[in-house]
């Protein structure tokens, strides 16, 4: 009954509809529909995961039809690493390291040996090229980790400049002889704690608060034409997921996940790995257990944890390996880092594709499997394959 953020979310899905693949002949159209249910707002990824899921399904279906390994078909269609190819909306894909990342993940996860020895399980790699830092204000929330971080950095630099000026004058030293290090402040030959330095500035009536403003550079977007450069840079990631499926009941488990994700130069590796782990599990939940059901009156029936199955720690794979592709962002971001709040979410698509592959093993055709792939839907998919 309200448009809410439908338009920008649909736009974002269209922008991500190529994912990591060069598709020279491509036209995307979105259809926004009026429904009889309450409006739903944006979610982590802001439409991007939906666009990526669509093309990953297309690639997987094409590989099945051609009798090719899906990973091989993905690799054949990756964007060129030299930055010469453009997306369907006219932006050059620069800093594209995904081919090297996938090769490394294959080696580290021992894909060849595991696939060769697997019969009942299915293994899938899903490549993701998640675009970040959008142009329009309507989608600013989906890139807050980078935009807000740069603004905070500018604010901190303003406060530090004030503190250095005051301390230099008070202690009779040149500003160049003041340094901040590990919670201490070196003032010439004297060292005091940062708390003491802040106290001196406070008593000296120096403002220790500031605001920062940041505008992402080098962006342009013509929404009427669907052309421009809506993203400052691209983040890359690859996930390998192994599942086991009970074909009698449709129940399944995630046995192992191997992830390699591009965070630029990591500001905090532990924090980044945690974001990747959490994003992956949330993405898995989105595509496997989190089913929305409305009754005949348009009321949401899955309105509580008892009916809406949110993934928990027990749903994480027993073997969960996450590594960082720790290479500097070629674009001028905070210390050459990359936003890592939302991109890892789409890596959960790998689990959905693995479940689809497991169902495919039960017959000859490509399985009709809708998301979320609940136990009931997996059982139905297996039965259709066996017919």
Number of distinct helices:
10
Helix content: 25-40%
Order of strands, main sheet, comes to 1-7-8-9
What would the principal axes of the Cα set say about the shape? elongated
Q: Main sheet?
A: 4 strands, mixed
| Category from helices, strands and their pairing | alpha+beta
Low-confidence stretches: 131-145
How many individual β-strands?
9
Alpha-carbon distance between the termini?
Answer: 41 Å
Which H/E pattern describes the elements? HHHHHEHEEEHEEEEHEHH
Compute the average pLDDT. 90
Rg (C-alpha, Å):
24 Å
Polypeptide structure, described:
The protein is α+β, with helices and mostly antiparallel strands. The chain has 10 helices and 9 strands. Strands 1-7-8-9 form a 4-stranded mixed beta sheet, sandwiched between helices. It has a 3-stranded antiparallel beta sheet with strand order 2-3-4. A two-stranded antiparallel ribbon has the order 5-6. Strand 5 (220-222) and strand 6 form a beta hairpin. Helix 1 (6-15) packs parallel to helix 2 (48-66) and helix 2 (48-66) crosses helix 3 (70-77). The longest helix has 28 residues, at 144-171. Residues 131-145 have low confidence and may be disordered.
Short description:
The protein is an alpha+beta fold and 387 residues long. Helices cover 35% and strands 16% of the residues. The protein has helices spanning 6-15, 48-66, 70-77, 98-108, 111-116, 144-171, 194-203, 269-288, 349-360, 375-386; strands at 122-132, 178-181, 184-187, 190-193, 220-222, 227-229, 233-245, 252-262, 319-325.
């Amino acid at each position: 009954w309200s448009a809410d953020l439908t338009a920008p979310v649909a736009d974002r899905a269209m922008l991500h509809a190529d994912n990591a693949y060069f598709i020279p002949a491509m036209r995307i159209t979105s259809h926004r529909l009026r429904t009889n249910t309450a409006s739903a707002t944006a979610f982590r990824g802001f439409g991007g995961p939906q666009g990526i899921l669509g093309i990953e399904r297309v690639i997987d279906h094409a590989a099945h039809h051609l009798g090719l390994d899906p990973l091989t078909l993905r690799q054949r269609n990756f964007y060129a690493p030299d930055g010469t190819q453009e997306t369907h909306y006219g932006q050059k894909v620069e800093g594209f390291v995904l081919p090297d990342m996938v090769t490394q993940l294959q080696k580290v996860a021992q894909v060849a040996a595991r696939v060769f020895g697997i019969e009942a399980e299915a293994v899938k790699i899903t490549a993701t090229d998640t675009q970040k830092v959008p142009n329009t204000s309507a989608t600013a929330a989906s890139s807050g980790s980078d935009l807000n971080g740069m603004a905070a950095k500018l604010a901190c630099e303003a406060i530090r400049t004030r503190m250095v000026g005051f301390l230099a004058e008070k202690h009779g030293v040149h500003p160049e002889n003041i340094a901040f290090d590990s919670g201490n402040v070196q003032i010439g030959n004297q060292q005091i704690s940062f708390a003491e330095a802040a106290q001196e500035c406070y008593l000296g009536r120096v403002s220790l608060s500031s605001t920062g403003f940041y505008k992402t550079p080098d962006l342009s977007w013509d929404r009427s034409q669907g052309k421009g450069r809506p993203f400052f840079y691209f983040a890359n990631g690859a996930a390998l997921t192994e599942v086991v499926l009970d074909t009698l009941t449709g129940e399944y488990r995630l046995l192992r996940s191997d992830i390699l994700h591009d965070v630029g130069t990591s500001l905090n590796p532990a924090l980044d790995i945690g974001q990747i782990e959490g994003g992956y599990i949330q993405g898995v939940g989105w595509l496997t257990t989190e089913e929305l059901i409305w009754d005949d009156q348009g009321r949401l029936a899955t309105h509580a944890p008892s009916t809406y199955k949110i993934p928990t720690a027990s749903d994480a794979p027993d073997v969960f390996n996450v590594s960082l592709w720790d290479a500097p962002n070629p674009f001028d971001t905070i210390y050459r880092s990359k936003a890592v709040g939302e991109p890892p979410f789409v890596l959960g698509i790998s689990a959905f594709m693995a479940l689809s592959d497991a169902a495919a093993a039960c017959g000859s055709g490509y399985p009709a499997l809708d998301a979320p792939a609940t136990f009931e839907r997996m059982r139905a998919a297996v039965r259709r394959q066996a017919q």
